[in-house]
Amino acid sequence: MYTVIKRMEISASHSLKLSYRSKCENLHGHNWIITVYCRSRELNADGMVVDFSHIKEAVKEKLDHRNLNEVLPFNSTAENIACWICEQIPTCFKVEVQESESNVAIYEKD
Asked: What does the record give under GO molecular function (predicted)?
């Protein structure tokens, strides 16, 4: 089994829609650290699990320096973002979305 890991930082803003009062309902930003894990039993014709630049295109180029509420069709929680990223990349099995030093959400496919 081959595994590749791509780690990147994006700067983006968002506001959450919550069922309770929270300061996170106001527009605010993070320097998100996103770690994408991809794996495959076999390498593709180019000798890769996936090209690192394709991961970057699927994530950073769509989300960096954006208001996530304008880009994503769901409540932009770290958990939802992690799941969405995982669905964008066929070989992806796990995504970590860190919105601050002490707050990390992880999504893993079954």
From this structure: 6-carboxytetrahydropterin synthase activity; metal ion binding
Strands (E), the chain: 2-14, 28-40, 66-67, 92-100, 103-108
Note the pLDDT tens digit of each residue in 40-61.
999 999 999 999 999 999 999 9
**Which active-site residues does the annotation give?**
24, 65, 99
CATH number (domain holding residue 58): 3.30.479.10
Binding site for Zn(2+), by residue number, is: 14, 28, 30
Q: Which two tokens stand for residue 59?
A: 């994530």
- Cβ(82)–Cβ(108) under 8 Å? no
> What is the per-residue pLDDT across 64-108, written as a single tens digit (0 to 9) for each?
999 999 999 999 999 999 999 999 999 999 999 999 999 999 999
